[in-house]
């Protein structure tokens, strides 16, 4: 398909309509709204891939228009993430969903996989839009506004291959040397990240296992009700009671399905996003350490006068400023991320708790109603026998 054939149109999807209402009703609270929707499959002789429509509505002066519509594929999102990391090495960039999800999702182009990815990409862009620094990144603006051919042209303007290789070699060399005197606050930060990573990965595995077992329970329970209906056909005296049990099981099935939906849409994505965040945080710490390691190596060279003293002194001054900026950026972003993480996880677990309470209340009410009905019938039968 022609990637440039998409004409700018007013958003028609529910998500786009919701964002349009928000943009019109709350112009002073937020000035950038992004919607990712309408996944579309593209088949070429070389590959098959999915693109997503991105609708952007804004009141910012630096944008040429108040509304943009573009289509992007997954590798475009990867490019944006890489550019943000290059421009802001010690800011916490929101994570992207994995390119492939092997566990529990075999078909890469299944509706479930595509919808899960769409939601994650939507969250990725809106996390950036809400970030106090990343939201004003020029590459982010280009990503939201440029048509496909313009984006391709912009990508070619980035660092060349040799330049990127040189940066990689220097980064590896710095990491091999290590950091001699990491500031205490970053030691504590690194310790927190390691513990957080262990805990959130464990919660993710347990949550996935709970969902899998719930699914198996639900599949078995769906077969349980019809069996009681068949049984009632051969037991005249128990027919009403068996049909009542079947009805209760059917109601419990519907309640279980709703709880599973809540688990898969509210809790699992949040927990898994922070699994990916923990990996991102480790990368941020490595980049911070690499900047400091580069400074340490220059200071060491100056101490032993391994190179031109004046040149080293000048480089050390620049690196000291770079380290200070990197440290300050990370410290400020760390506090913001901690607050966001706590709010997100608290909200997800509270929602799950409320779903569970409602689920068990529904089940209890269903079976209590059945018991009350059966008790009334027994009392009526007993009264008729006495008379």
Write up this protein.
- The protein is mainly alpha-helical.
- It has two domains: 14-158, PX Domain, CATH 3.30.1520; 179-386, Arfaptin homology (AH) domain/BAR domain (Substrate Binding Domain Of Dnak, Chain:A, Domain 2, Up-down Bundle), CATH 1.20.1270.
- 71% of the residues lie in helices and 8% in strands.
- It contains nine helices and three strands.
- The protein has a three-stranded antiparallel β-sheet.
- Strand 1 and strand 2 (48-58) form a beta hairpin.
- Helix 6 (161-177) packs across helix 8 (239-303).
- The longest helix is centred in the C-terminal third of the chain and has 78 residues, at 309-386.
- It is elongated and about 110 Å long.
- Mean pLDDT is 84; it is low at 1-27, 102-106 and 160-166.
């Amino acid at each position: 398909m022609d990637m440039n054939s998409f004409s700018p149109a007013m958003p028609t999807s529910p998500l786009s309509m919701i964002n349009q209402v928000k943009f019109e009703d709350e112009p002073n609270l937020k000035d950038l709204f992004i919607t990712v929707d309408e996944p579309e499959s593209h088949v070429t002789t070389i590959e098959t891939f999915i693109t997503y429509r991105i609708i952007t509505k804004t009141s910012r002066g630096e944008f040429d228009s108040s509304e943009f519509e573009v289509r992007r594929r997954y590798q475009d999102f990867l490019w944006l993430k890489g550019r943000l990391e290059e421009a802001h090495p010690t800011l916490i960039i929101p994570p992207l969903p994995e390119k492939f999800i092997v566990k529990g999702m075999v078909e890469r182009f299944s509706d479930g996989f595509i919808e899960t990815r769409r939601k994650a990409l939507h969250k990725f862009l809106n996390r950036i839009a809400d970030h106090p620094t990343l939201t004003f990144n020029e590459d982010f603006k280009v990503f939201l506004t440029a048509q496909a051919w313009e984006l391709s042209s912009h990508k070619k303007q980035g660092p060349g291959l040799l330049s990127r290789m040189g940066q990689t070699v220097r980064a590896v060399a710095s990491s091999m040397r290590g950091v001699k005197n990491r500031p205490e606050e970053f030691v504590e930060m690194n310790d927190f990240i390691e513990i957080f990573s262990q805990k959130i990965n464990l919660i993710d595995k347990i949550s996935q296992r709970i969902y899998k077992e719930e699914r198996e329970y639900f599949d078995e329970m769906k077969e349980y009700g019809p069996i009681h209906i068949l049984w009632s056909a051969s037991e005249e005296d128990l027919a009403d009671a068996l049909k009542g049990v079947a009805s209760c099981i059917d109601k419990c099935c519907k309640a279980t399905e709703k709880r599973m939906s809540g688990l898969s849409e509210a809790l699992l994505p949040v927990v898994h996003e922070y699994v990916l965040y923990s990996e991102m945080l480790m990368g941020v710490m490595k980049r911070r350490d690499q900047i400091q390691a580069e400074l340490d190596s220059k200071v060491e060279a100056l101490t032993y006068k391994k190179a031109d003293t004046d040149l080293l002194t000048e480089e050390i001054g620049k690196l000291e400023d770079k380290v200070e900026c990197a440290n300050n950026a990370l410290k400020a972003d760390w506090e913001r991320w901690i607050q966001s993480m706590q709010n997100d996880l608290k909200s997800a677990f509270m929602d799950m708790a409320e779903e569970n309470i409602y689920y068990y209340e529904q089940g209890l009410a269903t079976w209590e109603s059945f018991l009350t009905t059966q008790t009334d019938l027994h009392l009526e039968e007993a009264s008729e026998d006495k008379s």
